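Tutorial handout. Part one gives the primary structure; part two gives the three-dimensional structure as tokens.
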Amino acid sequence: MCSCKATGIFRGNAMKIISAKWFERFIIIIILTNCVIMAIEPAVECQSKYQNKLFDSVELFFQEIYTAEMLLKILALGFISGTHSYIKDPWNLIDFLIVMSSWATILSGASNIAAIRAVRALKTVRTLSAFPRMAKLV
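Part two.
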């Protein structure tokens, strides 16, 4: 019985976090910052080892934030069952596919993380949900 109550507390706190305006704004800022970093990163193969390590670390940092966002939403909303479950929202489904494909690329040991960046660039489309007028233009 205690574990159910604890789960309820965790779920309730997760719901408060994902429902907060600051959380959505934070995620939008992270997405836009990630886009800027991807644009700044040189696409040339002759980068120094230090630059490669730096950009790889930054990419992993963004991946961890996106994963934390996904897990918080799954905890708050449920994954599949329920009217408003995580996977039933189209934006969340896109985020889930992006996060999981990025982790698959990282865990496969692929040395070129261009695939992660290409898939993650799709996350920029999500920023349109924060700006409804811009979404109508697109």
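Part three, for discussion. Residues 15 and 114 are 34 Å apart (CA to CA). Residues 2-137 form a domain with the Four Helix Bundle (Hemerythrin (Met), subunit A) fold (CATH 1.20.120.350).
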